[in-house]
Amino acid sequence: MLRRCGARARHCWVDPGGQIVGRDSVPNSHLRAARKALRSPSGSGRPMSRQELADACNAELASMYGRQGRRPRWAGLTEKAIGALERGEIRWPNEDYRWALCTVLQTDKRSLGLYIDRPDNAKNDELPEPTEPNSRHQHKGMTLAHPRPEIYEPESPQTSQSLDASGSPSQWRAGLRHAVLARDNGQVLLPLPELEAALQVGNLAYQGAQYSKLRQLPILINGAESLFAEQPKAVEMPRVARAASGVYLLASKLAAKLGDGELAWTTADRARCFGLIAADPARTAIAAYQTACALAKQPGRAAEAEKVAVTAAEAIAGHQLYRTPAYLSAYGALLLHAAVAAARQADTRSAWRHLRAAESAADELGRNGNELWTAFGPTNVRLHQISVAVALHDNKQALRLADQLDTAQLPLTLASRRAQAHLDLAVAHSATDSSAPQAMLHLLEYERLVPEAIKLNATAAGLITKLLRREHPSRTPGLRALADRAGVQDA
Fold first, then answer.
1. Domain range for residue 373?
2. CA-based end-to-end distance of the chain
3. Is the dihedral of CA 397, 399, 404, 407 positive or negative?
4. Residue 486 · residue 461 · CB < 8 Å
5. Most buried by CB count within 10 Å: which residue of 185, 282, 388, 479?
6. SS3 of 244, please?
7. What residues are paired with 66 via a beta bridge?
8. b vs e for 214-252, b when ≥16 Cβ sit within 10 Å of the residue's Cβ?
9. Is 220 inside any structural domain?
């Protein structure tokens, strides 16, 4: 038996499960894209299925009910229910289901396309679908039906503006540099909700170390610039600026991953400018974080990286919204970077001081979150404690800390963070020749978790080279095969 919603939702009803059911269904491409951006927990490498998403949500709900000591209000999500959500047949699941979906997919309701029914005067946090299914957009002189396949489906044919997913890191760097500095590919008109949805998919792909899914990043850069140049209504300006800032933050992350510190700095600065236009201090702080990351990629600039991170952390700590999850996460992430930068200068005292401050922020946050794509929380602090110990060449301390680490506490999306622990432990074990087999095992686990990262990570390449130079084939079988897969030349 359905009952009609209030006046605010003019075309929907509430079913017995407390969910809003739409009369005129519009497919929810946001939710579908977020699900497909996650890998299956089975280890098959395929996208997460609807059933697997339902199971993950139900597990989170069971954990929450257990902590709160209360009984479940609903029967639980099913594959059929996820399908109904993705088809747009259900637009506003009950409160518990909304929480579970946002927790598993590590984003918010607006980014997942969940809403009741957007009236004409809706606020920005009430996101409808980008357009009706029969609407059409102009793209480089061609008419394309929504949704734009090359934005949502990374397996689509390569365009003139995309990065070559099969190319070498140097080719990726050249392509991204051209997209950022030249921008001579003409105007790309992306509706703002479509840009936001594609940006969400891109961030999920980055955190999952699925870098081949970022090959359409030049289109997002061009789209963000074009959208901003159109001078939208004043009420939309902050939202457009936030999206543009997000695009350049993602570009900065990829540039840093590719080892191009100069380009990472340029894109971080653009992200900061758009963050200032949006009057969004938390986003501006994350731009400072990326600036520090860019400096850290350049020889001899660790001290500058630490200073940038600490200065930005102090600024965010003085903000009136400091104790909100987003601001706490930005503050904590900055301190974690400052700690690593201090460790690289052999400044043990400062490194652990920054870590203690970050740990206090994580305790106040109280969960392993992913606000502003920072992955900040108690478990990430522990991961950075290991990184700091390794940077300080205190390998025994790193191994002791690893015994207390449970990476299963991290959100499912954070494959890259989870894998970092194995890379750090591989470095720690490589300090002695007798531990080469353990180092090799951690490298193989790193590759298993993030197979696309092994070719891009300079630390992994250096470690493989080090092991090759003192190779004992009987103790490290498979090392040369790993070197081939990582693109490391025979030492």
1. 299-410
2. 71
3. positive
4. yes
5. 388
6. helix
7. none
8. bbbbbbbbbbbbbbbeeeeeeeeeeebbbbbbbbbbbbb
9. yes
Q: What is the pLDDT of residue 460?
A: 92
Check whether residue 325 and residue 208 sit in a common domain.
no
pTM of the predicted model as reported, rounded to 2 decimal places:
0.71
Q: Note whether 441 and 482 are same-domain residues.
A: yes
258-270 pLDDT per residue, tens: 989 999 999 999 9
Write the single-letter amino acid at 180: V
CA distance 476 to 491: 15
Q: Name the stretches of the chain with pLDDT < 50.
A: 1-24, 117-160
354 and 403 assigned to the same domain: yes
What is the 8-class DSSP label of residue 45?
Answer: S
- Among residues 102, 52, 98, 108, the alpha carbon closest in space to that of 78 is found at 52
- d(CA 306, CA 335) in angstroms, rounded, equals 9
User: Within this chain, do residues 425 and 357 fall inside the same structural domain, yes or no?
Assistant: no
Quote the longest CA-to-CA distance of the chain.
74
What's residue 57's pLDDT? 87
- Counting Cα atoms < 13 Å in the Cβ hemisphere of 255 gives 34
Q: What is the DSSP string of 118-156?
A: --TT--TTS---SS-TT-EEEETTEEEESS-HHHH-TTS
What distance in Å separates the CA atoms of residue 178 and residue 181, rounded to the nearest whole number? 5
Q: What is the pLDDT of residue 277?
A: 93
Residue type, 116: I
Task: Kindly state whether residues 374 and 427 are assigned to the same domain.
Answer: no
User: Are 355 and 336 in contact, with CB atoms under 8 Å apart?
Assistant: yes
User: Long-range contacts of range 158-163, CB-CB < 8 Å, 24 or more positions apart?
Assistant: 158/215, 159/216, 159/219, 160/185, 161/185, 161/188, 161/216, 161/218, 161/219, 161/222, 162/215, 162/216, 162/218, 162/219, 163/214, 163/215, 163/216, 163/217, 163/218
- The token pair at 428 is 């720690």
Give the pLDDT confidence of 324-357 residue by residue, as tens digits: 899 999 999 999 999 999 999 999 999 999 999 9
pLDDT tens-digit readout, 151-175: 434 334 344 456 665 567 778 888 8
Q: Which pLDDT score, from 0 to 100, does residue 11 have?
A: 41
User: Sheet containing 90-92: which strands, arranged edge to edge?
Assistant: 3-4, 12-14, 20-22, 90-92
Q: How far is CA 30 from CA 168, 281, 312, in A?
A: 31, 26, 32
Give residue 419's pLDDT.
95
Q: Three-state SS string across 290-330, please?
A: HHHHHHHCCCCCHHHHHHHHHHHHHHHHCCCCCCCHHHHHH
Number of domains in the chain: 4
Provide the pairing of β-strand 142-145 with 136-139: antiparallel
Sequence-distant (≥ 6) Cβ neighbours of residue 331 within 8 angstroms = 285, 313, 316, 317, 322, 361
Which ranges constitute the DSSP H helices of 404-454? Answer: 415-429, 436-449
